[in-house]
Amino acid sequence: MSKKAIFYHAGCPVCVAAEANLAQAIDTSRYEVEIVHLGSQSSRISEAESVGVKSVPALVLEGVPFHINFGANLSDLK
User: Fold this and answer.
1) Using an 8 Å Cβ cutoff, are 68 and 10 in contact?
2) Cα 25 vs. chain centroid, distance in angstroms?
3) The pLDDT of residue 78 is above 70
4) What is the pLDDT of residue 74?
5) What does each C-alpha distance from 1 to 13, 18, 24, 28 come to in angstroms?
6) Separation CA 11–CA 3 (nearest Å)
7) Cβ-proximal residues to 30 (8 Å cutoff; 6+ apart), any chain
8) Three-state SS across the chain?
């Protein structure tokens, strides 16, 4: 059974680079990877906030958020 990894981003250049270099490097035999573009899926912003995401890009592994570089605050996406 694989664990859950969710990569939240907003489509900015920093986010796109992080997706290409980090999210795509996750071992899919260990993690079920979901990519969430909050710019086009704004209904999921509250979900990201509820697990502790403060800015994007961010990777949430097994419910623990890891903030990567800095693209945008979640508040800027609302």
Assistant:
1) no
2) 14
3) yes
4) 87
5) 33, 26, 19, 11
6) 25
7) 2, 3
8) CCEEEEEEECCCHHHHHHHHHCHHHCCCCCEEEEEEECCCCHHHHHHHHHCCCCEEEEEEECCEEEEEEEEEEHHHHC
CA–CA dist 77, 32 (Å, integer) = 25
Tokens linked to 71: 């693209």
Judge contact between 71 and 8, C-beta under 8 A. no
Write down all domains in the chain, each with its CATH number in brackets: 3-77 (3.40.30.10)
What tokens does 58 get?
């961010």
Specify the pTM: 0.88
Residue in 61, 53, 56 with CA at minimum distance from that of residue 18:
56
Q: How far is CA 3 from the centre of its chain?
A: 15
Q: What does the pLDDT look like over 21-54, one tens digit per residue?
A: 888 899 989 999 999 999 899 999 999 999 999 9
